[in-house]
Amino acid sequence: MTVTPDADPTDTRRTGYRRRLMDGMAEALAASPYRDVTIGDVVKRAHTSRRTFYEEFRDRDDCYFALLRSVHSVMLAEVAAAVDPRSGWEEQIRQAVTAYFTAVAAHPAVIRSWVRELPSLGDPAVTLASRPRDEFINLLVGLSATDEMRTAGFHPLSVDTARFLVGGVEEMTALVVEDNRPVAEIVEVAVEAVTAVVGLARTQTADA
């Protein structure tokens, strides 16, 4: 790894430790449910010490929540990057949905834990769950508000419509990670459903 002249080697090293610990948590989740994961499991997989762990995270939950936020941020970035605003609106929907479920498939253990275990972890977990949902909603509204989409006859999605779509996508996500449904199968169902809802909004706009 090359450090730029302005970089603080200590900060760079700490960032590396933090990433390794989150990766260790992800590996531990692939082997056991979160309730059974210990800090010892994480540091063993990360090849670090407990002292290093506590320099980066307050406790086990802090590391877990940081991992979930990191994975979700990566997923949203991949969805945003996959959508070509020059494409037709139906193709943009396919690009976004495909990118999302491809990202889900790349992090099955983390997403499975998010779906199954996060809701039972109390108030901080509720906040963590709602914040990424709001970020996803904002992403969908933003993707629908481009000049290309307006040219195609769309007004930006309302927050409520985007919330409806995100809720459906989350349910389909649960099918992938809990029932081991093939991602390709789920993508086709999700693309069809999202296209229908967005297409209806376009029809209503045209009729107004």
Considering DSSP H and I runs of 4 or more, what fraction of the residues is helical? Answer: over 70%
Q: Please state the average pLDDT score.
A: 86
What would you report as the Rg, rounded to the nearest angstrom?
A: 20 Å
The CATH class label of the largest domain is: Mainly Alpha
How would a textbook summarize the main sheet?
none
Q: Please name the fourth-level CATH homologous superfamily of the largest domain.
A: Tetracycline Repressor, domain 2
Beta content comes to: under 5%
The assigned structural class equals mainly alpha
Which parts are unreliable, with pLDDT below 50 for 5 consecutive residues or more?
1-8
Instruction: Give the strand tally.
Output: 0
Indicate the overall shape: elongated
CATH topology of the largest domain: Tetracycline Repressor, domain 2
Question: Helices and strands, in N-to-C order?
Answer: HHHHHHHHHH
Termini Cα gap: 57 Å
Q: What is the CATH architecture term of the largest domain?
A: Orthogonal Bundle
| Domain module tally | 2
Our count of helices gives 10
DNA-binding region: 38-57
InterPro entries: Homeodomain-like_sf, HTH-type_TetR-like_transc_reg, HTH_TetR
Protein name: TetR/AcrR family transcriptional regulator
Domain HTH tetR-type: 15-75
